[in-house]
Amino acid sequence: MKQFLSVHDINDINVLVKKALEYKHDPFKDKTLGIDKRIGLLFLNPSLRTRLSTQVAARNLGMESIVFNVDKEGWALEFEEGAIMSGNTVEHVKDAAPVLGSYFDIVCIRTFPSLKNREDDYSELYISQFVKYCGVPVISLESATLHPLQSLTDIITIQEYLNSNPPPRIVKPKIVLTWAPHVKALPQCVANSFAQWINAWGEAEFIITHPEDYELAEEFTKGAIITHNQDEALKDADFVYVKNWSTYYDYGKIYENNPQWMLTEEKLNLTNNAKVMHCLPVRRNIELSDEVLDSANSIVTQQAANRVWAAQAVIAEILNSQL
Ligand code: CP
Questions:
Q1: 50 CB less than 6 Å from ligand 1?
Q2: What is 95-135 written as a DSSP string?
Q3: Topology of 148-304 in CATH?
């Protein structure tokens, strides 16, 4: 693997999931693979899980990790080619990225969308400029439109549950991605990425449900059943993935925040005793009720814990390709 920006960078999802679950079983089995190597974690936005799980994963492989909060500690970066830098940006990515590439064997970066201009955000300018100029493999820690480490984790968590589930075994799980209310306009990246990975995985019946006008980009959702009827979608679901996103077409807006879309115990009763997933952080009693989050159906902590094994599998793939 030369980079990890989306599902298109891997050959076989099931092989990577298996590798991640092997690391969960035996975290230090490749503890010298990354010895004398360094991984740089660059953040243009806050993080709890992505930052710490990637550091733990690197440590398990014997790598040193260094975190750089670019937004708070670094020079303001310019990403536009040919920019006349007379404004607030101090350093062009064309100059900064090769320096970072000289310090690290792998560069990981988290960017975020502006939610102001869809074309700019969906062009993935920030992360693609790092890929272009840093000269070493790049791992996305979440970009403007996708969150591949999260999505790999999500499939690991689903597969882990399917492996351990007592008979009768679920052969083709029904997975529902449901929109939930939120107080802020959030990116579409987790939902885009989940849809992209579940569609590519191809081993589930996949339904997306959201209010009217919250359509996601078809390039990611193609293959899923899409409905505005949440109750109908939830019927007999085995997994329910709860996530808010802002509007895609009239970009970055909150059109409505109907609390009826919050996942409650009553709605969960429509499902096949579904496992409930969320990438976290979650707004309690806005997106999901306390009773659901604190119930045995919720696997959000297990899901977040699995971030380590996803990151470890991806870093190991890249290190192995450098041997
Ligand atoms: N799910 C996720 O990416 O969490 P953080 O924003 O805390 O890294």
A1: yes
A2: HHHHHHHHH-SEEEEE----SS-HHHHHTTHHHHHHHHHH-
A3: Rossmann fold (3.40.50)
